[in-house]
Amino acid sequence: MADPYFQQLFADRIGGADYGKGTEIYKFEKIKRAKRQALADHPERALLDFGIGENDSMAPANVRQVMADEINKPENRGYADNGVIEFKQAVARFMHREFGVELDAATEVNHAIGSKPAYAMLPAAFINPGDVTLMTVPGYPVAGTHTRYYGGIVHKLPLLAENNFFPDLDGISPDILAKAKLLVINYPNSPTGKTATTEFYEKVVEFAKQHQIVVVQDAAHSMLSFDHPPTSFLSVPGAKEVGVEVHSMSKGFDMIGWRLGWVCGHPLIVQAFADVKDNSDSGQFIAIQKAAAAALDDASIPQQTREKYRRRMTKLVEVLKRCGFECSMPGGTYFLYTPAPKGLADGTTFENGEAASQYLIREQSICTVPWDDAGPYLRFSVTYVAADEAAEDALMAETEARLKSLAPVF
Ligand SMILES: Cc1ncc(COP(=O)(O)O)c(C=O)c1O
Question: What is the second-level CATH architecture of the domain 62-297?
Fold first, then answer.
C-alpha cells in the first residue's frame, strides 16, 4: 500500500517519515504477546501473572459510595480546570497526617489526571533544547521521553546493587551538571523496591542547591513502604526550596483507573506545572476528586493496601529463595527485583533478563518483567489476582513447583 501523503510529515520525535514502519517490539508488547501465546499453547496451564503492575482490588466500598453520590450532583458536572479546593485541602491534611509536611492547599498543591501526565508536563516547564534531565534507571521513563520531545537530553543514573540502589550523584561529570535542570528520583523505587533514607534525601537537597537543579521526587508507591513508615521527600529540611513531590491515588488507594494524582512542593514550580496543565487538559472529573478526598481522609485504606502487599511479598520472597533466587524483602512497592537466573540445570543459558523472562512464560506460563538496564534482573509483581489467602497460597505452591521443575541456576 502506498504511503499516505502525511507519511513525510511525522515529527522526528516519533520517528519522522519512518513512523509506523519499524519492526521493533517494545518490552511490554513482547510480554503481552508471549502471554497470549502461552495461553494458546497451554490452555490447561494457569497463567501465573507476576508481570502486570496494577492493583488487583477495586477502590474501597466507601470511596465508591462517595463517587456514586457525587456523580449525581449538578455542581460537579463542569470543567474542573486546575482542580477543586476540597481535593487540595484533603491532600494537605493527608501530607500532614502521614508525613508531618505542611502545605498551603491553595498554592502548593495541584492535581493531575494521574501522576503519569505530570511527568509529561513538568519538562515543559523547564526543558529548553540542550538542557539535561537526570534520571535514575531502571525506572519510569515518561519524564525522559518528554525531555527528549522538548529537545532536551536524558542523562541516566544507574541504580546498582553495589550502590544500594541509590544514584551516584557525586559521579556526574561537571559538564553534565552544568546543563542539568531536572533530577527525577523515585522512592519507594520502581522496580528495585528500595526506599529512601533521610540521609539520601538530605544529600539530594544539598546537591540540588549546589548545582541549581530542580528535584522531582516520584512518590507513586509512597504508601507501600515496608521497612519503615512511609516518608516524604518534603519532610526533609530545605526540600520544598528545591522541588516537588508527585503523588498518586493509584497504588496505595487501589484507584489506578480513576486517574488522579497531585504535584506538591515549591509554589512557583506547582504554579508552572498548573500553567502547563491548564494548556493541556481541563482537569479531572470533580466527582472523582471528591471521592479521592474521602479516600485520603481514611487512614485505614493505605494501611490495608500496604499490609496485603506486605503479606504477599513475604510469601513470594520465601518461595523464590527456596527456588535458588538471591532475593530479600524489598523496602517497598509491590515489586520484587531480583537477579535473573543465568540458566537452568539442564544446560540452557540465558543471555539476559529478557531471555530468562521469555523462557519462564513460554515453558512454564510464569509471567515476569525483565529489566536489563543495570544488569540482568527480573521483576515479580505481587498484584496477581487471588480472591483470598488460600488462593494466594495455592498460587505460591504452584509457582514453587513450576520453578523447581526448571532448576534455575544463578
Ligand atoms: C514509579 C511510577 N511512577 C508513576 C506511575 C504512574 O502512576 P499513575 O499515572 O497511575 O499515577 C507509575 C505507574 O506504574 C509508577 O510505577
Answer: 3-Layer(aba) Sandwich (3.40)
